[in-house]
Request: fold
Amino acid sequence: MAHCLVLWPVNDVLTFSELSNGVSMKTKGTGYDLGITPGSLTVSDKPDAKGIYSKKYTFKIPRPSAMVRAKIRLLATSGMYVATYIDDTGEQRVAGSKNYPLSLSYEYSAGVLLCTLQGKGTDVDPYTL
Reply:
């Protein structure tokens, strides 16, 4: 089950190279590990008639402190992102890219942050190299 998701502001992605067997990505600084609920990440990516994928990632953050809620609020209003996550098979994958970054939105309900990353892309999420 997916249990880790890290956001990287697209401006912090220094290089992003898509190769036939995955993606090589170099970043500056440290990404934002969101501490998601294990097993709560769902990935949806559907291509349209032109082959452009609509991508949507939903996940939960349990019992967030006021500081975590403030951080999510800031992230949701301050930029576009590339994300790395561990998929259900234990492999690290990349969501979004410099050309197709993701936006973050959230809802706070019953003590849980319900978060969504959305964007477009040209293929399914590649593995990291």
Summary: The chain has one helix and ten strands. The longest strand covers residues 53-62. The mean pLDDT is 93. The chain has one domain: 5-121.
